[in-house]
Amino acid sequence: MQKTLHLTLVLLAFFMAAPLYAQRKVSADVEVKTVINGKMTTAIKSIYCNSNGRVVTSFKKPSTYYVVTNAKGEMQFYYPSTNEVYAQTDQAFSSTGELVWLFMSGRIDDLGLGAYGLKQTSTSREDGYIKKVFSSSDPSKPVVEIVYENYLPIYCAYTSSGGKLLSKKYLSDYRSFGRFTLPMRVVDINYGDKKDSSVVRTLYSSVKVDTDAPEFSFEVPANATPLQLPKPGE
Asked: What is the model's pLDDT at position 178?
C-alpha cells in the first residue's frame, strides 16, 4: 500500500513537471505595477522565452527598449530610437531567474534557488500543503520557504540569517495553456530598512505556447552604438 501511494505521488509530480519541459517557446504580455512610498508606477512589456534560456523582453511603457538575456548572465539593453546598446555580463542577470522560464523549464521544485547556492534543508506537510525550506552555509544568503498547493508554488518567504523577514511572494490564478501552466498573478512585498515597503503586482496575459514570433529571434543590430556607464565619481 505504501509503495503504491509513493509511486502515485511520484508519477503525479512527474506529470505535473514533465509537460513544462516540452515547451520550446512561450510568450506573454506583462503588466507590472510597483508602489513605493505611496507612489505607483506601471510598466508594460512582452516577454519571449526560448527553451535554451534565451529571453527577449520588449518594454513598451514607460519607455521603449529591448532587453536580451541568456542563462550565462549575458545581457544587452537596446534602445531602437537611438540605435544604442549597453551590454554587461553578470550571473545576477541570468535568464534562469525569469518566472516564465522557470515554469516552462520545469524548475518549480525550487524556483531556481539551486542556481544561487541554496539547498533544500527540510520538507513538511500540513493541511494539504507542502512546505520546503532552502538555505545555504553562506550567512549572507537568505533562508527561503516555499509553500506548494497541488504541487504548484503559491507562497515564498525570504528571511535573513538573522531572522528578519526580507520579502514575500504570492503566486495565484494558475491557468493551463495546453500542457503549460503559469500563475497569472504574482505579488511581491519587499521590506526595506524603513517602515515603507515596496509592493509589486505582476499580471500575465495573452500567453502563447510554441507560437512563432519574430521577437524570439530578435538580435541587436550589428551597427548599434555601444553605451558606457559613467564610472563612480565622474
From this structure: 84
pLDDT in tens, 94-127: 998 899 999 998 889 999 898 888 999 999 999 9
SS3 state of residue 230:
coil
Residue 47 burial (CB count, 10 A) = 22
Nearest CA-CA partner of 201 in 225, 171, 165, 231? 171
Tell me the residue range of the domain where 202 lies: 19-207
Asked if 160 and 171 touch (Cβ cutoff 8 Å), the reply is no
CATH of the domain at 121: 2.50.20.10
In a domain? residue 34:
yes
Could you tell me the pTM of the whole model? Answer: 0.84
Residues 6+ apart with CB under 8 A from 221: 78, 83
Would 229 be classed as within a structural domain? no
Whether a cis peptide bond, with omega within 30° of 0, leads into 214 is no
The answer to whether residues 63 and 82 touch, using CB atoms and an 8 Å cutoff, is no
